[in-house]
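Pinned message: reference record for GMC oxidoreductase
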Amino acid sequence: MSADRPPAEGAEPIDEERDRTPVADADVCVIGAGPAGGLVASRLAEADLEVVILEAGPRFDPADRLARQERAIRPAYDRPAVWDGDPERDAHASSGERFYPLNHARVKGVGGSTLHWQGMVMRLHEDDFDSASARGVGTDWPIDYEDLRPYYAAAERELGVSGADDNPFAPPREEPHPMPAFRPSYSDGLFAEACDELGIAMHSVPNARNSETDDGRSACVGYGTCQPVCPSGAKYDATVHLERAEAAGATVLDRVPVQRLEHGAERIEAAVYATPDGEERRQEADAFVIACGGVETPRLLLLSESSRYPDGLANSSGLVGKFFMDHCFAGTGGVLDKPTRQNHVGFLTSESHQFYDEADDEIAPFKLEFFNYDGPSPVGLALSGDDWGDDLLERLRAEYGNHVGMGALVEQLPREDSYVALDPEQTDDRGNPVPDVHWSVGDRALETVERVNEIQERILEELGAEITWQVGPEDTGPAYHHMGTTRMGDDPAESVVGPDLRTHDLENCWIASSSVFPTGGAMNPTLTIAALALKAADDVRESL
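Predicted structure (tokens):
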């Protein structure tokens, strides 16, 4: 089914004849063509190494993005359909206490999750690296903020971040952001009046989208459909670095899902991948970098079990797949008796980290988000009734344009009973067990969601809004930030990779992914993923 699924209407057909032959004499095989894989591949290819990238999903034509945008705004299509998600190929299980809708926000394809992400990129705070020491809960990372600080700066340059030095709660910086921040929106100004009265500070949001023309990509033109598609290319996606890698001599093979990793006692020998016609081929290399995200990375390692590693590859600790984390969402919204210009901007331009570093063993770190988008779209409203013509126009004018909303991300602590495993019954289109996401949250996160709701209510009430919806402890859901399933640490018995991102068990295998996060903090993870990917690339290059 997945091999024959048509692309978006108006898109060019996928080239079935594309060469998917293994690359001879490869120095590095990167598995996964998302942001981490793209950065690693680009950095190593530009260092004159022979690099091959294996990606399970297709290569999408940039010319098709307007067609995908049209699909995104049509209510008949759900999120996975925008980027040709396939129920059989992408099948998964969810056995945890809360259902985990994995396919709602992931893309299999060249570019990965950055094809549909919102694009916010902030650094973790200093205490996020020392949670056990500073907050009395969780675990400490084997590296600290200062270790990652130069890589954060490099990642901001690589992604092209627009931001300002106006956040008094952010960790220290060493240079300005590459581009100026986006100006506060009209609704930001409404929120600012209420927050000033309550003593709550607002500040700009660093975004991986161009506020001005940069790197051959236009400035943001305001399509407003950032999630799930940016037609202009102003928002960064990983195809930027994959194209750089190819220009430096790397090879990208698409639609070649890796089935397993063949290995000896201490080294990976080959990645066995399937082609669209069902043939299996072996890609050999001197070094392997797994960059498949927090779900598919542990799944691949578990699928690669052997007599040497009966519980899964690189799993002598027994922790592959364990400590799955996400950020819990807390939100509150309502309506005002005046225009709010809802949906004029498709991304966040203001936040508040004021309460973040008050975290302790009872209250988790969290950040407040001030939405530029809330309430129904005009299309959704039009479809919700039976009226037409002037009656419809009158209703739209009455019901659209006065909505306002807030969100927040809340840290979930690492828990061993929150994990990714192989489902014992269900298989994908290749006959492999699908991932089972067993998501458990914990009381600290839920109590923090409740506290966040109280703050949001105070702000909206000060604003004069009638509150019409809320997402609280009972119905909180994930932010789709998959973290923690191959955690980093110094002790091989308590972690999967070391501080250099190399697995403890295999001397030629690195993991570049949010899966290595020991804790999650409450910041969107992509900038930290990018920084760690650049760190891993440096170590791979030195080892070769």
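Pinned by admin. Summary line: The chain has two domains: 2-89+107-161+228-324+480-543, 178-205+328-410+442-475.
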